Amino acid sequence: MTSETTESPPGNEAGASAAMAGQSNPAATPGGEQIRAESSEPPVLEVRGLGRRFGSVLALDDVSVSLRAGEVTCVVGDNGAGKSVFIKMLCGLIAPSSGEILLDGEATEFSSPRQARSQGIVAVYQDLALAPLMSLWRNFFMGAEPIKGWGIFQRFDVAYAKQAMQSELEKLGVDLGDPDRAAHTLSGGERQGLAIARALYYGARVLILDEPTSALGVRQSGAVLRLIRRAAQRGTAVVLVTPKPQHAFWVGDRFLVFQRGRLVEDRMSETLTLESLSYLMAGGTEVEELESAIATA
Amino acid sequence: MSLLQLPAYGNARPWVRTAVLRPELGSLVAAALLFIFFSIASSGAMLEVPTIARVLDTAWPYGIIAVAVGLLMISGEFDLSAGVMVGTAGALLGVMATEWGMNLWVAVFLSLLVCLALGLWNGVLVVWTGLPSFVITLGTFFGLRGANVALSKHFTGDALIENIDDAGGYDSLHTIVATVFGTAPSDFRVSLIWWAAFILIATWILWRTKIGNWIFASGGDRDAARAVGVPVNGTKIGLFMLTAGAAWFVGVSSAIRYTSVQAGQGVGQEFFYIIAAVVGGCRMAGGYGSAVGPAIGALIWGIAFVGIPHAGWNSDWRWAFLGVLLLVATLINHIVGERVRTARSG
């Protein structure tokens, strides 16, 4: 009995419930583990009752969502609906004021984007974190340079860096040409490609993309969306913020609609058409409320 | 301007691509042209061994510090205290050896510690306050300019400290930093070997180590670098210390070579290093450059410094030359830089 209690990690809900089950019936501990294993495809990242207050303003209120591997989750909503606060909390840029974040079922707290990144949660922002005059391979390995040799002869493995970048880009179907060209010479879509490939190369399990197609033309948007699908196929949980219904509908498996700091819809793509999605994104129920308010006045 | 007609990067032959992407190329061409020009203007006097020896001897003290200042510039920072730090290193050495009777080896070591501490001070203040390094190191410059002379006078009664060769350890140190090869006036100092070694090591660090990648990243886009985990602050502080260390080497070398130190030396030279770095193709805003470039920039200064009197001109023109050189080099760098930035691969 005592040994079972000490085995379960402190502060872990699942562990605590297993220990409680053990208390009522000592033989049932393996059964408790069985229950945890039974829920097939556990979410990579789960948030429960997530909220954030800025002074007296409630920016996000009681959001509970599970993000699964291989799924593209689109976060949509009006300006100020809370979507950017939501993704900033996922990647450790903003700390939640209430609720919890669970990674692989374990409650975690991210004190910084760097820490979230080390756990496999990577946000690719619009500025993309590329140094303009540095070559593609230098950018690709910025902050994580592959090393060979030892002691004072330790050096940046340039041949490996170029080859590893090229093979990763090939796997994703991204062609950027000469690896020695400066990052500044890339087009917007190519830059997205490089940034996404880099995130995936470093083992991103949750990839958060903030309006990746906002500044792109049709062809380049298509290429980036295809890349996003490919990332999901490789088993990454993708979170995509976009104001464009067509882009979201084409690539999304699941849609989270935010309104005034609340999660008002959580729908799978099968339950939606492009029209109904556009309607939801344009304000959805809010429009109905507005119409009925006008009618009753 | 033929430079504007450079072939577009993407369609160019491989060697042209490499050339466009080599930051020091412009300065190499300029150095060669200048050397040919002064060779003709001096009726061949420029090509004689004693003249070449003088060019190199003029260039190396600037060259060593310019290489460090160049790396610092690539990381996005300036150091205006590098010149006066040469005086600090020498004056410290002089006071410790002649007044306090220290062995020169001990004095050299303590002088290094003080210079590194001053570099640390510059670096920490810059990253901690977020103020432009221009302002922070200008403060250090004036502080040291006063302290160098005031403290020398306080301890020795004079701004000129002499007879350093009386101190213990002089001979061994002289061998290391001031050995002469050849006989005057065709004499070459061992300092040139130290300079070459420093250029090679700096190039190695810049192109082939992760620290080099951090230097480019820190100056290229500080926030991006930080976001992916590059220790930007540590890199910059390290480079301020490297610059202080380079100034220390030059200050100590010249103190031992000339056996005397002028406490006011080095003032005004901080701009030469920056000019050499810019002429050598380092981008003033950071993120682009090389270690060889600043060394070639210093060599250009040496060629002009020695070449102007050889050509029979008033040597006061050197300063005007330096001004024109800076302007032209910056302009060329700007054009080439634009070329690199807009280059498209086919």
Give a written overview of the molecule.
The complex is a heterodimer of chains A (297) and B (346). By secondary structure, chain A is α/β, with parallel strands linked by helices. Chain A has three domains: 1-40, no CATH class; 69-95 and 108-130 and 198-297, Rossmann fold (3-Layer(aba) Sandwich); 132-185, no CATH class. Helix content of chain A is 40%, strand content 23%. Chain A has helices at residues 2-7, 13-24, 29-38, 83-90, 113-118, 136-140, 158-171, 188-201, 218-233, 245-251, 274-281, 285-296; strands at residues 45-54, 57-67, 72-77, 98-103, 106-108, 121-124, 147-148, 155-156, 206-210, 237-241, 254-259, 262-268. Chain A has a six-stranded mixed β-sheet with strand order 6-9-10-3-11-12, with helices on both faces. A four-stranded antiparallel β-sheet of chain A has the order 2-1-4-5, with helices on one face. A two-stranded antiparallel ribbon of chain A has the order 7-8. In chain A, helix 2 (13-24) runs antiparallel to helix 3. Chain A is globular. Chain B has 14 helices and four strands. In chain B, helix 2 packs parallel to helix 13 (292-310) and helix 12 (270-279) crosses helix 14. At the A-B interface, helix 5 and strand 8 of A face helix 8, helix 9, helix 10 and helix 14 of B.
